[in-house]
Amino acid sequence: MATTEKRMNRYGLLGRNISYSFSQGYFTQKFKDLGLQDHSYENFDIKQIDDIKQVLAQKNVKGLNVTIPYKQEVLPYLDELDPKAAQIGAVNTIQFTGKGLKGFNTDAFGFRTSLEPFLKAHHTKALILGTGGASKAVRFVLNELGIESTYVSRSNKEGQYTYDDLNGDIIRENTLIINCTPLGTYPKTEDKPDIPYEFIGTDHLLYDLIYNPEKTSFLAAGEAGGAQISNGLNMLEQQAEKAWEIWNQV
What we know:
The protein is α/β, with parallel strands linked by helices. The chain folds into 2 domains: 9-105, Leucine Dehydrogenase, chain A, domain 1 (Rossmann fold, 3-Layer(aba) Sandwich); 109-234, NAD(P)-binding Rossmann-like Domain (Rossmann fold), CATH 3.40.50. 30% of the residues lie in helices and 22% in strands. It contains 8 helices and 12 strands. The strands form 2 sheets. The protein has a 6-stranded mixed sheet. The model has no long low-confidence stretch (mean pLDDT 95).
């Protein structure tokens, strides 16, 4: 695979095993559309978070996105946090400033913007599948919207459900279900979170942060039960535009 040409204004994505990434294709096309020939966007695929030092030591890096599994691990390497990112406890965008590195969370903006058109009055309680960095932004938004939410995890922790806890009553009560796990991502498209899909009905909205494939097994199972469904593509587009806005703040 050809390496990205290194230009005067370099942006990129920090993560692990990110060859599938949406961001590189999105920003490369954006720079082309805007005629920004001196801009490039690269994947900085690092094995551990401490390798960020090698990325930061490179020339002309002007801004970074952060993805799995480093949205929380990156926090100690930043000099400042935007108040919303501090509340969420996870960062997906790093701005290079005169004072150092400042962390932002544009996942929350992207999620809220993409979710709101689907919400109905009865969507008052939600299940958040997964407890990683992206789930923190999801819960932050649900709190802002006044939607009560509960994490679902493989481990047994106070205030959370395990997948084994889920039953018909819980599923029927929580009409908004958001997948924040990587289950179902290409190429393992047959995977999906282990929830009792037979209790999903027409009142449900299933939202998957995954965008590849366009309709995950999770969404297909929800749709089969009559639920509204949405994937994470619009969220990614919205958060990417917000990141671009942040990088260009003077």
